[in-house]
Design goal:
Layout lengths: L2 H19 L5 H5 L52 E4 L4 E4 L6 H12 L1 H6 L19 E2 L12 E6 L2 H15 L17 H17 L7 H6 L8 H4 L3 E5 L5 H11 L4 H8 L14 H11 L2 H18 L10
Parallel strand pairs: 2-4, 4-5
Antiparallel strand pairs: 1-2, 1-3
Length: 326
């Protein structure tokens, strides 16, 4: 698809969001691509998790990206890196988004790619961790055009509530794994300081939106908007989108795989692992609950995170959280 058709798609999609939500006035389209540096609101405090900054003039969350407010919101559908996993036998392509069922989905697609090899290796879906994955470089691509005959294959992606994804990512990488101990640049050099991390990731997203850079890093991959992935800007209408936190996610996923020809034995194998957790799962952990409580009770943090992921909420059908006025 040439450059002009891509731009037309983005314009039409933006217009559909405006029409559907009725949130934006006419200045939105004029201001959409007009970015400016936000005020420097970053903090320089030592490692601390709970840093709450009161905000007395907050807008309602639905109003944050309306009119001039759009200038402080991260735009959707930027061109960013992609991760695809394929099963030619099932005529299926999965787009993988970090911190969104990515380890499990990679393992599922590997199982579909070569069921015999997967079973013979005595692997389970939860044990096929990313660093030691069986299908490394076998069914993995970074561009759709590199997948032969991809236009005739079915595409799907798994998405997640943006706040849940952010909270899980920070908890897993910065609090539990403490990846910054081995790699000093990770967690935006903020270690466990949540406010510092939010500020720096917001600034980094703005920087990329204004001038895409090649040096994307670990933090970018785990925290940049989901709408930037999967070449959604060009091919969104071709995707089946599954919500990880939807009530019927397991049934939807298994139904899709059954529709694409997976036999009953394969369905049972996958279903038997869907309710297990990978080492990266943060559900029910004390750390995760603390981070979530901190975000939801801090107008400053919640406002900024909404500005980071506003269009993920709209695009993937998630309700925006309310910002408590103080």
């Amino acid at each position: 698809m040439n450059r002009y058709i891509k731009l037309l798609f983005v314009f039409i999609f933006s217009g559909c969001i405006i029409a559907y939500t009725n949130l934006f006035n006419r200045s939105f389209l004029q201001d959409y691509c007009s970015f400016h540096d936000n005020d420097n609101e970053s903090l320089n405090e030592n490692d601390t998790l709970k840093t709450l900054i009161p905000l007395t003039n907050d807008l309602d969350s639905l109003e944050l990206c309306r009119g001039d407010g759009v200038k402080k919101c991260i735009p959707p559908l930027m061109k960013y890196k992609q991760l695809y996993r394929t099963s030619k036998e099932n005529n299926l392509i999965a787009c993988v988004i970090e911190k969104t069922f990515s380890t499990f989905l990679t393992a599922i697609m590997c199982f579909l790619h070569d069921q015999t090899a997967f079973r013979d290796s005595n692997r389970t879906l939860e044990s096929d961790i990313y660093g030691e994955r069986l299908c490394k470089d076998q069914n993995e691509f970074t561009e759709l055009k590199k997948i032969g005959n991809w236009q005739k294959m079915s595409l799907f992606a798994v998405v997640r509530n943006p706040i849940d994804r952010f909270v899980s990512g920070f908890t897993d990488k910065c609090l539990r794994e403490k990846v910054w101990k081995k790699y000093k640049q990770r967690c935006a050099q903020c270690k466990t300081n949540l406010t510092c991390f939010v500020d720096k990731m917001y600034d980094r997203m703005f920087k990329f939106a204004k001038s895409p850079y090649k040096g994307i890093d670990f933090d970018d991959s785990h925290f940049f908007p989901q709408s930037w992935r999967c070449e959604f800007s060009s091919h969104l209408v071709k995707y089946q989108i599954l919500q990880l936190d939807g009530a019927n996610f397991p049934d939807q996923l298994l139904g899709l795989l059954e529709e694409k020809g997976l036999d009953e034995e394969g369905i049972k194998f996958i279903n038997g692992s869907l309710h297990h957790r990978t080492p990266h799962s943060t559900m029910d952990s004390v750390e995760r609950a603390t981070v979530e409580e901190t975000v939801l009770n801090s107008p400053y943090l919640l406002r900024k995170i909404i500005q980071m992921y506003y269009f993920d909420f709209l695009l993937f059908g998630y309700r925006l959280p309310e910002i408590t006025r103080v």
